[in-house]
Amino acid sequence: MIFNSSKYISSFPESLLPNDASPEWNNKADNAWQLIAATLVGLQSVPGLVILYGSMVKKKWAVNSAFMGLYAFSAVLVCWVLWAHQMAFGNKLFPFVGKPNFALNEKFLLSKASTQYYLPMADFVFYQFAFAAITLVLLAGSLLGRMNFYAWMLFVPMWLTLSYTVGAFSIWGNGFLEGKIIDYAGGFVIHLSSGVAGFTAAYWVGPRSSNDRKNFPPNNIIHMLGGAGFLWMGWTGFNGGAPFQVGEITSLAIFNTHLCTATSILVWLSLDMFVYKKGSLIGSVQGMITGLVCITPGAGLVVPWAAILMGALSGSIPWYTMMVLHKRSSFFQSVDDTLGVFHTHAVAGILGGILSGIFAKPSLLKMLYGPETSYGPGLFYSYFYGNVGQGIRQILYQLLGAFFITLWNVVITSLVCIIVSLIMDLRMQEEDLEVGDDAAHGEEAYVLWGDGEKRILPLRIHINSPTIISISHQRHSIPINKIDE
Asked: Which residues span the membrane (predicted)?
């Protein structure tokens, strides 16, 4: 059925017709998709990683782990609009960071995002906030099960300000690496930085209690899988929103993202079955994450066969560093990275960044960045185009980007941890580490009598009648039928 709206519009009052609320430069399709993409990225953190973290940890740390993610997500948004967005994407202060300023002005938020993007600046600010927030939430995965929550509350705004904004401005903003490093959607800016910073912060905070480090089973694997599902499907917005327009690159990026991820899962699963003779759901989730991370820096810039190859490598190289090298290396053993964020994000992020420098296709680079782009070509294509020197140069730039992000995060994360430690303890008290959530927040994820890990209090037995015994523990009271003598 064809609906002709023109004859109806003429009868509407003039005040109801389209006006300045949708200026000529605003592409409604781009605008709508960008808001959806930003929401999908936000859902990766809340509820995605919140559920994933709260389920992957030991039962007594479920609330604390989820709470760290929720706090980081909300705190980053406030800091982002007050000063951090402009430090990452505003006017240059230094070659590596912009001037801090508000991103709250109505005129600013409703203006055209840039000469390249046909949508309001508010879309750009919100989408980039979601990127910044998930970086902090990912970082938290290295610190679960022992960090003082109040120290975490200070750590989040400090690290966002001193570390994340620098990486974002240097590579994506108007910094000294902009136009040189291929990082389509954050392999370096988000994943390498969160993996390196998480590992560094884990060193300063110290390890979990000896009991937790030896025995740390997930409390709900099915819920863990639900959180992982939010993360995987949310990556449609993570990589699909990076071009800030609805076009061929967006479609290709989404397709490559899921293709690489599925390949990575199958390779990780195959290695688990070959070496350990059993398939692991937790291992498959790790393989899912490494696939998502690896494809991110080149999702819209490589062709599908390259995405499959990247998935095969992301399912095998991080598997080796996590399952083999980590266990053999005294260096890795000396730092308690709770969820292995270094392997799933730093290793996979560097791998994806280098592979993007190899497989980035010149025509796709021009389609996204314009015909005069200074990126690339990828080393693989440079051979066929007769300009191998340019391909080698791009690989060297990729390595330079990895080196800069790694070094900056090691130094700044250490500095932030040292400053916070001068104000309060980075780590919970040892007696509280044995208790977990109840000591940290006075709450438990599973309030079942006798099934939580709580402070041991005296057990009181009351004889109410010849046939009933009431046993009370703290607030709980359970009647038990007396067995006939």
From this structure: 32-54, 61-83, 124-144, 151-172, 184-206, 218-237, 249-269, 338-360, 395-423
Which has the higher per-residue pLDDT, 294 or 480?
294
Among residues 401, 335, 395, the alpha carbon closest in space to that of 143 is found at 335
Give the position of tokens 């929401």.
39
Please give the Cα distance from 383 to 387 (Å, whole number): 6
Please state whether the peptide bond connecting residue 377 to the residue before it is cis, i.e. omega within 30 degrees of 0: yes
Give the span between the Cα atoms of 408 and 167, in whole angstroms: 8
- DSSP-derived letter for residue 84 is I
Go through the domains of the chain in sequence order and give each one's CATH number: 33-433 (1.10.3430.10), 459-485 (no CATH)
Q: How many other β-carbons are positioned within 10 Å of the β-carbon of residue 276?
A: 11
Sign of the C-alpha dihedral computed for residues 63, 66, 72 and 77 taken in this order: negative
- Please state, in angstroms and as integers, the Cα–Cα distance from residue 271 to each residue in 17, 280, 281, 309, 319, following that order: 61, 10, 13, 16, 8
Let me know the angle formed at the C-alpha of 312 by 306 and 317, rounded to the nearest 5 degrees. Answer: 120
pLDDT tens per residue, range 343-396: 999 999 999 999 999 999 999 999 999 998 899 899 999 998 888 999 999 999
pLDDT, tens only, 428-441? 999 999 999 999 99
pTM of the model: 0.88
For residues 145 and 338, is the Cβ–Cβ distance under 8 A? yes
Q: Ramachandran region of residue 477, left (φ > 0), alpha (ψ -120 to 50) or beta?
A: beta
- Give the span between the Cα atoms of 370 and 249, in whole angstroms: 12
Question: Which residues are CB-neighbours of 421 under 8 A, at least 6 positions away?
Answer: 151, 204
**Dihedral angle, C-alpha 111, 117, 123, 124, nearest 10 °:** -100
Neighbour-count burial of 214, counting CB atoms closer than 10 A to its CB (0-12 exposed, 13-18 middle, 19+ buried): exposed
Helix H, strand E, coil C: the string for 176-240 is: CCCCCCCCCCCHHHHHHHHHHHHHHHHHHHCCCCHHHHHCCCCCCHHHHHHHHHHHHHHHHHHHH
Instruction: Kindly list the strands in the beta sheet with 476-481, ordered across the sheet, starting from the edge strand earlier in the chain.
Output: 460-463, 468-473, 476-481
What confidence category does residue 446 fall into, taking pLDDT thresholds of 50, 70 and 90? confident
CA distance 400 to 199: 20
